[in-house]
Amino acid sequence: MEFTKTDLNKTLWVKPTEMDKQRKRYKVDATGKTLGRLATDIAKKLLGKDKVYYCDFWDCGDFVVVENADKIKATGKKLDEKMYYTYSGYKGNVKSMPLKDMLKKKPHRVLELAVRGMLTKNKLRDRRMKRLKVIAWPTAAFDHFKPVDLYTK
């Protein structure tokens, strides 16, 4: 079903069931891609900004699967200077880890945190993040959905 507006003064209302039917699946190979630029492209697909019926209070985004998350590159001095913090809630228990070590231990978490920070901070953010799958190696587990490459037009 194609969504077009004939009267530009009226809001295009689409039922959630129709939006679910229109969701696409994208696959990305993160080898050699810059962390921030890849995260912005993924965030746009999760938000659904490329859809005709996009609205900020609708969850109309697509599914995204990212492979080879451990081969993401960072520009400048970010590998040594960018820090990730965890806090357990106890006094003096703030732990920090540079990007270089985080890419070795939890490469999927680096991209998830970057994309999560780019999504809108509202009730829909967790639902949108569930549609993102980040894997640190090449896989064929999601190929039965027939995903499209994110960077092909």
Short synopsis of the structure:
31% of the residues lie in helices and 16% in strands. By secondary structure, it is an alpha/beta fold.
Account of the 3D structure:
This protein is α/β, with parallel strands linked by helices. The protein has six helices and six strands; from the N terminus they run αβαβαββαααββ. The chain has helices at residues 16-21, 35-47, 78-81, 99-105, 107-118, 125-129, and strands spanning 25-29, 63-67, 83-87, 94-98, 132-134, 148-149. It has a four-stranded parallel beta sheet, covered by helices on one side. Strands 3-4 form a two-stranded antiparallel ribbon. α2 packs across α5 and α4 (99-105) packs across α5 (107-118). The model has no long low-confidence stretch (mean pLDDT 91).
CATH fourth-tier homologous superfamily of the domain at 22-74 and 107-149: Ribosomal protein L13
CATH architectural group of the domain at 22-74 and 107-149 = Alpha-Beta Complex
**CATH fold description of the domain at 22-74 and 107-149:** Ribosomal Protein L13p, Chain: A
Biggest sheet: strand arrangement: 5-2-1-6
CATH class of the domain at 22-74 and 107-149 equals Alpha Beta
Output the helix-strand order: HEHEHEEHHHEE
Q: How many strands?
A: 6
Helix/strand structural class: alpha/beta
Distance between the termini: 20 Å
Q: Approximately how much beta-strand content do the residues carry?
A: 15-25%
Mean pLDDT: 91
Shape: globular
Enumerate the spans where pLDDT stays under 50 for 5 or more consecutive residues. Answer: none
